[in-house]
Amino acid sequence: MFDFLREGQQSLPAKIIMGTILSLIILSFVFVGVGDYVQSSGKARYVAKLDDEKITQQEFDEALIRQRDRLREMLGEKFDPAILDSPAARKSVLDMMINQRLLTREIVRGRYAVSEQQLASAIAAIPEFQEKGEFSPQRYEALLRRQNLAPASFESNLKLDLSVQQLERSVTDTALLPQATLVQIVNLSEQQREVSLATLRPQDFLEKVQIAPVEVKAYYEGNRQKFTSPEQVRIEYLVLSVEELIKNVVVTDAEILENYKANASRYRTLEERRARHILLSATPKASAEEKAKARQRAEELYKEAQRDPEKFPGLAKAQSQDPGSAAQGGDLGFVPRGALVPAFEQALFSMKTGEIRGPVETEFGFHIIKLEDIKPATERPLAEVRAEITEQLKQAAARRKFNDSAETFGNMVYEQADNLKGAADALSLQVHTSPWLTRQGGELPLLNNPKLLQAIFSADALKDKRNTEAIEVKPGVLVSARVVDYRPARQRTLEEVSPEILQRLRYAAAQKLTQKQGQEQLDSLKKGGASKVVWSKPQLVSRSAARGLSESAVRQVFQVRAETLPAYTGNEEADGSFTLIRISKVIPPNLNDAAKIQAYKERALNLLARAQFDAYLESLRQQTKIEIIKENLEKAEE
Questions:
Q1: Residue range 431-448: average pLDDT?
Q2: Rg of the chain taking only CA atoms, in angstroms
Q3: Staple 492 to which of 87, 201, 227, 487, CB 3.0 to 4.6 Å?
């Protein structure tokens, strides 16, 4: 299973593995399983065609399911099962699949390749596969198993991800940022301006506003649709959930002990050894003369290291031909058995701490090895893991109970459609009653699932008073509901809504007065008129530090030409208020702050690189005849 690690752990450059965390790796499975790169055959219905290469309906449906599963895991209780039902969401998934196909073509055409050593290094660097900062084969295997991923498929897709990164770098590494542009960016972002504020608010003008009854009536007649009460229902509902079932699960000491013994390997860590090495390269294809030279040099370095073991890191840094560890003084970190090539491992695990051995020949060449430290194998006692095992057993038992009960729950609410009591009694559940709900939901988050609301307001539920089907409103939670009371939509009378309309009209009129007064004061200030404005205490603002100003107000501050100070501007705020702004000082950025300038340069280059790659991807699409079958794209997966 871990043969790929036995080929060595030659480190990738940091940029290759940067961002390659597990969630992004698994994302590739959402769009392209290993088989997705094989040309479809037969007459299977397809969703899109790139030149002569098809994306079949089955491939697309499977991608949707995988994406839905991934979102379910990411969002938890906030996940909405209908999240990918919209045409826009389905098109987004298809676009990602198309992009992947185009990039795969370019990878093949450009002969981008990832070696087994690079693959091993990338996997070992993924935090989710590590324990205490070191790669754990047990965690690797367990996590893939939980995701229903075979190692071979995972490794194949990760190779593809890394190849895509190589391709992306070949495009984005050419992004250039002229110094003048960088200085302009820093000036725009870091310039500070000292401002004082004065705010005029509609509330201050309400007393000056008078609204006649005829205006209220006219507004009502012209906007009757705004004053309708939506139809509402109250429901009885039944909930079957893993969370509630867990509360009734009892786990015995015997079950805990049995689980502990059956999963002993899960609570045991293998012995690990920390080594440094110096590598003199000599691949299996090297000539006998080249191998002899490498061996001779390795023997010389071995003797030199033996004479002064403290110099081993310096020797490795200067002499080792392993690009992945030389810069760290040959340090390979802590590794367990099974993580290295056999000859190297056999030598390492037969050494004593501080011992230096060599030359050891492997398929990579000749190694001088120094054993730095040993972490003995450990075993977590039962007392330490009891709570963890108890929770696992409770979860498993509750899920089994949930799975066993789900079919009964669904059948009974369907077969006894005029009440929920039968299912409640059979499964020892409680019938709940809701407050009033509209088609948009209500105050109970559990009942705001779109699919459940659609069922509640269906003809079956409203007219025939039948139970809804059992609906999964979130993972591990089924709900069935029954309408017990109904209020139809109705037009609210003028008498009912007059106070609401009066308030709305008064505030709208006050807003107009606020804007008028604010603009008049601003015009007077700009002309140098005497000011009765009470200004706030001055404060420094920048584009990145608004200090409480709205986005539009900040934009106004930095649009003002500030050659002559004080300068004035104003801003109409979203709440109807008007902000007068006095600019009294302009502070240029510190262009001598090398760290800050470098940070801006990196961010700008990242944006340029992203835009450059997006343009490259768009050019691939333009060069490809892409056909999308809309009716198949919008067909739900079966």
A1: 93
A2: 34
A3: 227
